[in-house]
Amino acid sequence: MKKNQGVVGVYSYVDSVLEAIRRLKNAGHEKRDIRVFSPTPIHEIEEALIEEESIVRFFTLAGATLGCICGIGITVLTSADWPIYVSAKPIVSIPPFMIIVFEMTVLMGALSTLIGLVVNARIRRNAPVSLYDPRFSDDKFGLAVVCEKDRVRDVEKIMNDTEAEEVKFEGLH
Amino acid sequence: MSNQSAPLTYSRVNDDIIRMLEKPSLKWLALFVFDLSVLGIGAMCFIYQVYTGLGVAGYSHPVFWGVYITNFVFWVGIAHSGTLISAILFLFRARFRMSIYRISEAMTVFAVMTAGLFPIIHLGRPWNFYWLLPYPNQRELWINFKSPLIWDVFAVSTYATVSILFFYVGMIPDLAAIRDRVVEKPRKFIYSILSLGWKGSNWEWMHYTRAYLYFAAFAAPLVISVHSVVSWDFAMANTPGWHTTIFPPYFVAGAIFSGLGLVITLCVPIRKIFHLEDYITVDNFEGMAKLIMLTSGIIGYAYAAEFFMAWYSGNPHEWGQFVYRATGDYALFYWIMVVCNVIIPISLWFKKVRTNIKALFVISLFINIGMWFERFNIIVISLSHEFDPGNWGVYKPSLIEIGITAGSFAWFFMFFLLFIKTLPAISIAEMKEILPVPRKGAKQ
């Protein structure tokens, strides 16, 4: 059956959310179908739901490496393109060029980190926008579960048993 | 006004910080209009200078780097403590940074934007500033990567970009909180765009916290590198008073020192006006005061070491330069610098002074003054008194230079005033991180 139902529980306490996550996992719901919205990062929630490491680090590494190569390229190639001695220094003079290489590494590393953040946070967000509630940026926690139609009541029961203050339902496409 | 008797909760943090963005008061508007008028004077001075030529500045043989370059180094220095507080103290997990880092990051961004104006103002033909960038041109000429001025272009522009990114990324969850709170449609629309659809899901937080860590890891060495590069603008030249290896650590310590001074100058009135006593606490100020004690000690040592090395080197030009600094035409400025940067901060060794907000505010004003004169002394006095007595002379800033300098302060404060009323001055998400996580067991 298609997972086209969204259930959102609104919580005030982190331990209630963690208990609900434990029960949902025991009931056979997959981690990727469970999302928690929180006003601040909560490491216990992350540990309960995510096993993998963020792949933003690969964007950072790729950007920094590219920046380093570009820094070497722009200094060495442009100096070699019009070779002119300045203050009797070698045409390709490593110490001053290292400054440019360092700055380019940092610049492109930082830019690619931003791209990595935006791309990954959006692609892997998964939880549909309709499950969000503005209270989740204030003082409430949102537990969103995507499931099959016939499991909605079970999810609702788990949420009610774990003291969800409100449970909302959304039909998803 | 915040409910100061109530304990800090997630909800109160949102209320108190978003309340700062309400319609500006008449006092704010009056201050803003005054600021714009000073900026207008600065702009007119610049237009006059462009129209007439650089001769209207007080430059005269032998001093061709004057107040403009002083302002450049001063503002770049100011920009440093923002990233120090946000990145280096983040990596060290110093909790006292949480409430002040947003203000100091904003200060960093606006200070770099101010600093960036001065090399251009200082150009005889400012419209040709882009010649500093490496771009293919019909003459097939490239820039000289061995020149410290080119290192400066790369260092300062990278620092500006990374600081803006760091500032913006740190604000994304808070912009979403504002988006969720405001009701007026245009404001909601703007904050929706700026928050990039942030929902605060566990996946978003995971990527966000890692990305923030990498930004901090990049920004930390960048802080050290940028002012080192700025110091090489001087240290690479064979001028007495400039040509020394202690310049990079001396400049970096001075930059952090001056930036912390301005952070305190800005935080004290903001805390008072917006009643943020529960957020920016006396402990936060004490943490900054301790950093000021450290950096003041380093620059005090650098002042002494410069004198010692000038004497011990046996180089008459170097020694002559330092004797001239302390006793010559600019001796008053030299001693203002020593008193403001070394003598007055000694009072911070007393806890009573460190924890007295009014005293800290007054000391921070002295630090701002002292650090501006430090830049002036290094640049102008060294050029006034080089090797050959026939080549000595005294520089006096012209009214145009003073007008543009005043305009630069107005430029900085214009952005800062706008920031206070449009963006969250304290990090909402990070303040919540240092509050106890709401748990059933802890409920009343």
Written account of the structure:
The complex is a heterodimer of chains A (173) and B (444). The radius of gyration of chain A is 25 Å and the shape is rod-shaped. The model of chain A has no long low-confidence stretch (mean pLDDT 89). Chain A has 2 domains: 5-53 and 126-171, Alpha-Beta Plaits (2-Layer Sandwich); 56-122, no CATH class. In chain A, helix 1 (14-26) packs parallel to helix 2 (43-49) and helix 3 (56-81) runs antiparallel to helix 4 (94-123). Chain A is built from 5 helices and 4 strands; from the N terminus they run βαβαααβαβ. A 4-stranded antiparallel beta sheet of chain A has the order 2-3-1-4, covered by helices on one side. With 173 residues, chain A is α+β, with helices and mostly antiparallel strands. The two termini of chain A are 13 Å apart. Chain B has 16 helices and no strands. Chain B is globular, with a radius of gyration of 23 Å. Chain B has a single domain (10-437), classed as Formate dehydrogenase/DMSO reductase domain (Formate dehydrogenase/DMSO reductase fold).
Descriptors:
heterodimer; A: 173 residues; alpha+beta; Alpha-Beta Plaits; 2 domains; four-stranded antiparallel sheet; B: 444 residues; mainly alpha; Formate dehydrogenase/DMSO reductase fold; 16 helices; globular
